Amino acid sequence: MRSILFVELERFYVRALGVDDAEPVLVMNSDRVLDATLAALARGIRIGMSLSEARAIMPEAKRVEYLATDYAAAREAWLDLLVEVGNAIEPLEPHQAWVDLGLHPDPNYVVQSLKERMTVQGYQAKFGLSSVKWIAQVSAKYRPWNGEKHIEPHELLQTLPTKALTPVDPLHRERLEFLGYPTIGSVANAPIRVLKTQFGSAAFRIQEAAAGRLHEPVKAVYPEASISFERRFVDGLSNRLELDECLKVMAHRMSVRLAHDEKLGRHLVLVLEWEDGSLNTLRRQSPRALHSPSLILVSLGQMLLKQPFTQPLVRVKLIMPYLARRKQGQMGILSTMDLNAKARELEPVIFAVGDRFGDRAIRPASSIPELRRKRVLRVWREATGWL
User: Fold this and answer.
1) Rounded to a whole number, what is the distance in angstroms from the first to the last CA of the chain?
2) How far is 214 from 208, CA to CA, in rounded Å?
3) Taking the mean position of all CA atoms in its chain, how far away is CA 116?
4) 3-class secondary structure, 7
5) CB proximity list for 69: less than 8 A, separation 6 or greater
6) pLDDT string in tens for the chain (387-residue length)
7) Hey, which bits of the chain come out as E strands?
8) Which residue, 357, 343, 341, 255, is CA-closest to 300?
């Protein structure tokens, strides 16, 4: 079963700004409190509170307006941690993101190891784990992951409030509560004919959501403009030769994908997961564009020069982020043919164009007169040395 993780950082914006927690500081997004220092929270400030409420509680608090550029570096720093464990990363807000863990046999272990690494780096986060994308987000808010075994989506939703049914229109959620559906479980147990009477065609989506369905894939949005390939090994790779063979296959697949998408890149990220669960993330920026298997392999070889091989390798992930569109040069007409073949191929085309548009429609470039302005400038440049 595919596992999807939702990660939400706590106090991300205050931490990114580097403000003192002893000072009352509010990070505002329009007229809502986006984040606050511990001093402000201790006085009753709450995340999501309106500006008027915050002013009434703490008029002396310093307010900082949210600007995305102020948090770009901090956002990339923590999202890079998710790249190490996920097949696809889809940020929601700068402090929130979904991670597709794929078909990993032990997603709880992945989340636990990620949580430990984030804690070491000073991050505080809530996690939600599910096989359904929207339920993972809801779980992080109402029932954060704490190491428990997999819970089926419909079981997880049973006791959650109806307002947590996020795929349903907010107006319909309010009406469900008004009609006496306090929990998602009570909505799931309602007969479809009753819901159709109350909500019309929207009843089907309401019932699907309450049953823990409405699957949606995690979009590979981060790193921006990237492609990646991943391979897992049940028995592990025991030496460098086996790793090199794996990388040859991945480099070939990457070059084929680059050619198909007409892209190229200079950055490579290689993630190695060892048998004991430890991770090594290697990064390199090449001085030239990487578009062929040989160039990719040379760059990977440089990255692995000082990498010891002390235990079996169970996962290899190769990422090329920040791709740019490849500029294609115009090929010569029939350039793969010999001169006689070119003449034979071009002759009927030239005659056809001449018959349609006149004999002077096709002329050698040398017979086209140069503009007088260009001739004057060239003579002036030759006489004066002016460039």
Assistant:
1) 68
2) 6
3) 22
4) strand
5) none
6) 789 999 999 999 999 998 888 999 999 998 899 999 999 999 999 998 999 999 999 999 999 999 988 999 999 999 999 988 888 899 999 999 999 988 888 888 889 989 998 999 999 999 999 999 999 999 999 999 987 776 788 788 988 999 999 999 999 999 999 999 999 999 999 999 999 999 999 999 999 999 988 889 999 889 888 888 989 898 899 899 999 999 999 999 999 999 888 888 999 999 999 988 888 899 999 888 888 899 999 999 999 988 888 899 999 999 999 898 887 655 554 455 565 666 667 767 777 777 777 766 777 666 777 788 888 887 777 766 555
7) 3-9, 25-29, 32-36, 62-65, 88-91, 96-102, 125-130, 227-237, 263-274, 279-290, 313-320, 324-325
8) 255
Two structure tokens written together for 202: 């929207």
Residue keyed to tokens 């492609």:
227
Burial state string for 292-328 with b = 16 or more CB within 10 A and e = fewer than 16: bbebbbebbeeebeeeebeeebbbbbbbbbebeeeee
| Structural domains of the chain sorted by starting position, each given as residue range(s) with its CATH number in brackets | 3-142 (3.30.70.270), 153-210 (1.10.150.20), 227-325 (3.30.1490.100), 339-384 (no CATH)
